[in-house]
Design brief:
The protein is globular. The chain is 34% helix and 28% strand. The strands form two sheets. The chain has a six-stranded mixed β-sheet, sandwiched between helices.
């Protein structure tokens, strides 16, 4: 059986996944992905095609390793054909992970308006139209970036563990509680606002490391939490290019 291999190299960790067509077979996360750890992970799988996406500068050694693993190797750049159109005015500066996430949304909800929220180090809000056009989106600080900036850019505010156990108050009754509530409920309010800009019946997909936590504070209407959205999007881009 032939398999597809996808690699999503983020700012803080790498996600690696193996697919059989559209079905996820296995996935891993690595704080540091090395050629050897990649070889060890995929040992025993007959890899037909692979695709690599990185928001970091490093990675050429991984691409070289992929050429030893797979028969066909793709790297997600602004030049790679996509199953969707890009309405961004500067596609060469558009984050590759954002493109892959929107492609993942398309694979889950074809011909549907979708708000894609990727809650990681930064939070991106991206819009996919029902006509399969990625028209753009917005970028904001993530939960931990907001907490860190409040601490480093003021004299007396503490650095708060945003996701510490316990309820997030509606109105903080301590300095720690006020910071935590302001950050978490502020992000939830942002998501609710952007979702209100889309037509009725639109879908919202949350992905990224903080997605499960943030989802607790958003109404569940048409809301999907998909941790492997970027990987699923990369696989759909790979399949699209393999079929051309």
């Amino acid at each position: 059986m032939n398999y597809n291999l996808v690699i999503d190299q983020g700012n803080s960790r790498a996600k690696v996944a193996i697919f059989n067509e559209m079905s996820l077979v296995k996935s891993w996360q690595f704080e540091t992905l090395t050629p050897q750890s990649l070889l060890d992970a995929v040992a025993g799988f007959d890899i037909n095609a692979a695709i690599y996406c990185s928001v970091a500068l490093q990675g050429q050694e991984i691409v070289v390793t992929l050429r030893d693993i797979a028969r066909h190797v793709y790297e997600l750049t602004s030049m790679l054909p996509l199953p969707l159109t890009i309405g961004y005015s500067t596609p060469s500066t558009l984050g590759r992970d954002r493109v892959a996430a929107v492609a993942g949304a398309l694979s889950l909800f074809p011909d549907t308006e979708v708000l894609v929220v990727d809650a990681g180090t930064a939070i991106t809000y991206d819009r996919l139209t029902a006509s399969r056009c990625f028209i753009g989106g917005n970028i904001a600080p993530g939960l931990w970036m907001r907490a860190s900036s409040l601490h480093t850019m003021t004299r007396r505010l503490p650095e708060v563990d945003v996701e510490s156990p316990g309820a997030v108050e509606e109105w903080g009754t301590s300095t720690d509680g006020a910071i935590r509530a302001g950050i978490v409920r502020g992000v939830a309010g942002e998501i609710t606002y952007y979702r209100s800009l889309l037509p009725e019946g639109a879908q919202t997909i949350l992905t990224g490391g903080d997605a499960p936590f943030i989802s607790q504070f958003i109404s569940p209407l048409n809301l999907t939490v998909e941790p492997l959205l970027v990987c699923k999007g990369l696989n759909s881009i790979l399949l699209y290019n393999e079929s051309r």
